[in-house]
From TrEMBL, chain A:
Keywords: ATP-binding, Cell membrane, Membrane, Nucleotide-binding, Transport. Its main location: membrane. This is Peptide/nickel transport system ATP-binding protein/oligopeptide transport system ATP-binding protein. One of its GO terms (molecular function) is ATP hydrolysis activity. One of its GO terms (cellular component) is plasma membrane.
TrEMBL record, chain B:
One of its GO terms (molecular function) is ATP binding. SUPFAM superfamilies: P-loop containing nucleoside triphosphate hydrolases. Belongs to the ABC transporter superfamily. It is a peripheral membrane protein. This is Peptide/nickel transport system ATP-binding protein. The keyword Nucleotide-binding applies. Keywords: ATP-binding, Nucleotide-binding, Transport. It comes from Thalassovita litoralis. Coiled coil: none annotated. GO terms for biological process: peptide transport; transmembrane transport.
């Protein structure tokens, strides 16, 4: 079965004052219909750039899709015209952003904004679009939706604004829904509501969800499969159970072990020393080598490839050599 | 164990703007009769969602926010009755780490000067002694002496938080107020800072008033936990009791909402306890229990009378139907 969304060897570069840097380096991912893919990593790992590439929202220049393909139902999004992309964006692939306040227009009511999205992609009257918008607000759990539709974004709480974003994103029943850290600005009880809502939406609409997060706990609750990213590359890619129960790459292990867990009293957390290196300083070797406890001379000179060395694919020399 | 901080019935009111020139003045009670104790060498976590009053409570307890009534006994002395100069002298015992390491460090000052400044202000030691102390603090928090003369923007978020911690430790405080010290950091960096805070607590015998919305972080650092909702403490317990047997439905909801590796989608995990809606507005708080509108257990009495904190085992809980 070919995947609904298939990214092959995607390479994205940006022109910066340090010269050309590679933000994404041979990233390959796929999502099947009705499935949730979790993309996890620290800030600066390329998670959001991957999402923006799929949406055709990489600013070009300074950005450039330098290679690879993004296949949505077999159609390569890196090659389509801007007009075609505009038709796909919203109707086939939609995105929920991190900060709902800055991604909604403050001078229009939320009902108008959802109705606008509907009218862009469907031939319906303004009245019908507004009715659909209200039905969607009801669907995402906003109380008294007909009144709320006349509210401006600033009149809603953060959780409600994120619900409006979700209503807008699913208004045209997209096949792929990308959620870029949809709950970082929200409180935990509201985060739980949004996660539950995303799961319901997926059941109802059968959409594939790409959930971008830095939280392995969120991955555990939401994802069927996981891609762990580091410095612009996918370094581990497997089912959520495989990655959570048997992480191979030292970075994936670190991400899981460094979470203060509700279920245990531990005296000391596992640390990942140091920080993600700036992209313009990446050398020829493994980008994680400087933070890695299992570093060998080979790691400094040769980039490990994402290959299945037994259990599931991981990009690590130590895994390949059985040193872990 | 000696009592370091004893906060009694602390209340903080903010005046709201008048609707008109002669309209009556309304007040918002951000913190309502909060009491808690902190023993020397222990860490008390204050947990709650945004708007629950956790930061205001801590700021009022160290007199950075004016409180309208209550007592704050620090080593037996009521901080709220001190003169400004007495309070200024006392501040060397009470220091603070902020949430955002990007805005809490002066971008134009070298980090050695930032860390030394509390000693300059308090007139502690000679210049040479102060500089030696800065070097010592740098080592203590895991920074290198060759970084002394850099500016804050040359550091990563985690390193900046280390600088904040060094600055807070300069005057040898007894109490460190940590206001969401890791929530602006990446998960991998969070672990570094949490381990550092745990190490400093045991090495220096520090006490923490630790504010966070993240129960996992609180569980890692704190000995006791107080859960706040709409300006009140709804549950207060030793860590183990709170996490093993939460009594208040809000605490239970918080625990069920926090993502955990133990909950797997593949094993068909469905959240058992769902709560809907947002907290009510503190401007016009409900007459009864503030959580009643979102609570699965709420009955008539919850909407009419406010539950008082009562002891259930080791736990103090403000609920008509605890457990």
């Amino acid at each position: 079965m070919s995947a609904l969304l298939q990214i092959n060897d995607l390479r994205v570069t940006f022109r910066t004052r340090y010269g050309e840097v590679t933000a994404l380096d041979s990233v390959s991912l796929h999502v099947n219909a009705g499935e949730t893919l979790g993309v996890v990593g620290e800030s600066g790992c390329g998670k959001s750039i991957t999402a923006l590439s799929v949406m055709g929202l990489i600013p070009q220049p300074p950005g450039k899709i330098a290679g690879g393909e993004i296949l949505l139902n077999g159609e390569d999004l890196t090659k389509v015209s801007e007009a075609r992309m505009r038709g796909l964006r919203g109707s086939e692939v939609a995105m929920i952003f991190q900060e709902p306040m800055t991604s909604l227009n403050p001078v229009f009511t939320v009902g108008d904004q959802i109705a606008e999205a509907i009218m862009l992609h469907q031939k319906v009257s303004a009245d019908q679009a507004m009715k659909d918008a209200i039905a969607l607000l009801d669907r995402v759990g906003i109380p008294s939706p007909d009144r709320r539709a006349r509210d401006f974004p600033h009149q809603l709480s953060g959780g409600m604004r994120q619900r409006v974003m979700i209503a807008m994103a699913v208004s045209c029943r997209p096949k792929v829904l990308i959620a870029d850290e949809p709950t970082t600005a929200l409180d935990v009880t509201v985060q739980a509501q949004i996660f539950d809502l995303l799961n319901e939406i997926q059941r109802d609409f059968g959409a594939a969800i790409v959930l971008i997060t830095h939280d392995m706990g969120a991955i555990s609750e939401m994802a069927d499969r996981v891609a762990v990213m580091y410095a612009g590359r996918v370094i581990e890619d497997a089912s959520a159970d495989d990655v959570l129960d048997m992480p191979l790459h030292p970075y994936a292990r670190g991400l899981i072990n460094c979470i203060p867990n509700l279920g245990r009293d531990d005296d000391s957390l596992a640390e990942i020393p140091g920080v993600v290196p700036p992209l313009h300083l990446l050398g020829a070797g493994c980008a994680f080598a400087d933070r890695c406890a299992h570093k060998a001379p080979r790691c400094a000179v040769e980039k490990p490839l994402l290959i299945n060395h037994g259990h599931h694919p991981a990009a690590c020399h130590a895994v390949e050599e059985g040193r872990l | 164990m000696s009592l370091l901080l004893d906060v009694q019935d602390l209340t903080v009111r903010f005046a709201l703007p008048r609707a008109g020139l002669f309209a009556p003045r309304h007040y918002l009670e951000a913190v309502r009769q909060v009491s808690f104790q902190l023993e020397a060498g222990k860490a008390l976590g204050i947990v709650g969602e945004s708007g629950s009053g956790k930061t205001t409570t801590a700021m009022a307890a160290i007199r950075l926010t004016e409180s309208s009534s209550g007592k704050v006994l620090f080593e037996g002395q009521d901080l709220l009755t001190l003169t400004d100069e007495q309070m200024r002298q006392r501040r060397r015992d009470v220091q603070l780490i902020f949430q955002d390491p990007y805005s809490s460090l002066n971008p134009r000052a070298r980090v050695a000067d930032i860390v030394r400044e509390p000693m300059d202000l308090m007139d502690i030691g000679t210049m040479a002694e102060r500089q030696a102390r800065v070097v010592e603090l740098f080592k203590l928090v895991g920074l290198r002496p060759d970084q002394l003369n850099l500016f804050p923007h040359q550091f990563s978020g985690g390193q900046r938080q280390r600088i904040s911690i060094a600055r807070a430790l300069t005057t040898n405080p007894r109490l460190l107020v940590c206001d969401e010290p890791v929530s602006a950091l990446d998960v991998a960096i969070q672990a570094q800072i949490l381990n550092l805070l745990a190490r400093l607590k045991s090495e220096l015998g520090l006490s923490y008033l630790f504010i966070s919305h993240d129960l996992g972080v609180v569980r890692h650092v704190c000995d006791d936990v107080a859960v706040m909702y709409l300006g009140k403490i709804v549950e207060k317990a030793p860590k183990k009791a709170l996490f093993d047997a939460p009594q208040h439905p809000y605490t239970q909801a918080l625990l069920s909402a926090a993502p955990s590796l133990a909950r797997r989608k593949s094993r068909g995990y469905v959240r058992p306890l769902k709560i809907s809606g947002d907290p009510p507005s503190p401007i016009n708080p409900p007459k009864g229990c503030a959580f009643a509108d979102r609570c699965p257990k709420a009955q008539e009495v919850c909407r009419l009378t406010q539950p008082a904190l009562q002891a259930v085992g080791d736990t103090d809980v403000a609920c008509h139907f605890p457990g």
